[in-house]
Design a protein that fits this description.
The protein is mostly helical and about 70 residues long. The protein contains two helices and no strands.
């Protein structure tokens, strides 16, 4: 099955959102404050990635029209 650019973007966004959720869950479960902060930092970085992917998706939807 051939995937389009939009398919890749949407899959990457979903994967990134799952990692954010996982890292935040890990941060809430661990007792070590340094490790908790590390997971929160990872989640924040993934959030930046998600935002960038969303921009590409938004541009793609805008350029393709209704």
């Amino acid at each position: 099955m051939q995937m389009s650019n939009d398919d890749y973007l949407k899959k990457a966004l979903l994967d990134t959102q799952e990692r954010i959720r996982d890292y935040m869950n890990y941060a809430g479960q661990v007792e070590d404050e340094r490790l908790r902060e590390c997971f929160r930092d990872f989640a924040e970085t993934e959030g930046l990635h998600a935002g960038r992917l969303q921009q590409f998706i938004d541009q793609s939807e805008t350029s393709s029209g209704p």
